Amino acid sequence: MMVESASETIRSAPSGQNGVGSLSAQADGSGGAGTAGTAPAAGRDASGREAASGGADSNGEMSPAELLHFQQQQALQVARQFLLQQASSLNSPGNNDSKQSASAVQVPVSVAMMSQQMLTPQQMQQILSPPQLQALLQQQQALMLQQLQEYYKKQQEQLHLQLLTQQQAGKQQPKEALGNKQLAFQQQLLQMQQLQQQHLLNLQRQGLVSLQPSQASGPLQALPQAAVCPTDLPQLWKGEGAPGQPAEDSGRQEGLDLASTAVTATSFASPPKVSPPLSHHPLPNGQPTVLTSRRDSSSHEETPSSHPLYGHGECKWPGCETLCEDLGQFIKHLNTEHALDDRSTAQCRVQMQVVQQLEIQLAKESERLQAMMAHLHMRPSEPKPFSQPVTVSADPFPDGLVHPPTSAAAPVTPLRPPGLGSASLHGGGPARRRSNDKFCSPISSELAQNHEFYKNADVRPPFTYASLIRQAILETPDRQLTLNEIYNWFTRMFAYFRRNTATWKNAVRHNLSLHKCFVRVENVKGAVWTVDEREYQKRRPPKMTGSPTLVKNMISGLSYGALNASYQAALAESSFPLLSNPGMLNPGSASSLLPLSQEDLGAPGEPLPSNGSSSPPRLSPPQYSHQIQVKEEPAEAEDDRRPGPPLGAPNPSTVGPPEDRDLEEDLGGEDMS
DNA sequence: CAGGCGCTAAACACCT
DNA sequence: AAGGTGTTTAGCGCCT
Length: 673
Hints:
mainly alpha, Arc Repressor Mutant, subunit A, two-stranded antiparallel ribbon, disordered N terminus, FOXP, RNA polymerase II cis-regulatory region sequence-specific DNA binding
């Protein structure tokens, strides 16, 4: 159902192939990623069997992957909406919900405007830089949080209500029959509460849920006060069905669990910014009425006589709006209309699923957000929740990619230096944008900075295949990889390539063959690919003085100024490690890394976005030029991989474009084949 | 507008 | 025969 709306925007393309059609760029590029239902993504996911794509997603069931896609899609859509809101609210200082105020999104209004209906999620990704996306997601997160809270609350209320109802009804029913149903309910409730708990944890991790010092101590501590609730439940069960139950044991256990989880849920129920705990009155059923401010919850006042499912004179049971004059009548109605039967159970289940869906999505987005924030070194508006003994590892990369393949789900790690990688500059560019990346974004530093981001976010990296391949190869000690290893590197480093498998492999092969800079070397155990830096450099346009696009991008970025500084810093920081970390390199490989950074830093693209304006293109620190600087031109044009000067002695003579040194270096040290 | 670049798709050959 | 690896060609979009 929702899927359609999500993918709809993007669709319109032949689906399966996206081919080269008008959409290709977008749909394919970043698209593949987020495009939930879009066939391209889904199809390819099946890897190899893209054929299967077609309308696979239209099947009732979604695979986890599809679901994720879908969720992401939705997230982006939500983000889009937020953009609009943001844009409109930009005018009115008095922002609404305090939630985001602090971390007010910094998104160009223009973007927001554009995002209206015309942008597809993919485009959004392209247009928005990681930080911006992050901001959006943050907002989105807030919204979801809100929604979830409402859902959770509702859900709980309903479940509790049902429990009560059953309790009452149960007295007139054979206990045995009731037992099972209650158990089922209990399980549902438990499930939901677990979700809540999980969710809460996620939020806490991110700091989206602000725990008051007092609360911070832990939800569990709130037990005493909220005890009513937790303890109530078990009692309910005990008093009612538990005894004499076939599954009494398990039932009891669950009851206990429930107790704990319920507490958590309770604390969770209180919104991040909940005003003073004024109304922590537990409801008869143990449900604290904290969210009285919310539309829905507003209905059930603190009146002890009120009922969570009763408000504004009508029954709040999902899909039921029966009017009830008073509570008594309502209770009656409840017992008759919403007794414990299949229908009610089904409704509960549906509600559960809704909650679950949201929870999943939120969890995922949370994770992503966390990764993004960690990476960007940003904090939502809170003390970083993901406080880990941050030992900013030198650099994720220098280590020659020995990182354990963190699953996409793996929580993010250390924070990277503030700087938003160049990514922010080049329109967040999926493939299409690469041209920019080429010039303004040092792939290695960008990668280093957004390592986690790309690793976990299904976003197409803004680098060309060639540069990625090169990066992969150069990262290895001996600067050579087999095709398969290259594949592995791609999948290991980029979530995007984990998902969208099919085509990119072909592209990789294509690039390897096509570009002279990639040299195939027969090896003992087969063929390996190496990089001919000289060729690589050759193929890049010499210079690019302030490309219009770049400037444009730069300007469009809101926090451009601020970022500028951080970017540089980050860039420098991230680059150094590479250079100064020869530790793990073998003699020969030492040079291998250099090229990377150099190219990145000084590469022709020099026009580092940020630098462009404020600092010299080559913000390269002294060391940089020193360590690596090499001679300018490919001294001799002769063969590409000419055994350059003995690696040891790069010609200090010319300081040509930094780029060139690579070649040199590479050649020399590489002496490949 | 032309040319270059990068991407995807696809056909084909070769090898294991 | 199937699958992986390489090579080529073609068409398209974007950028300069």
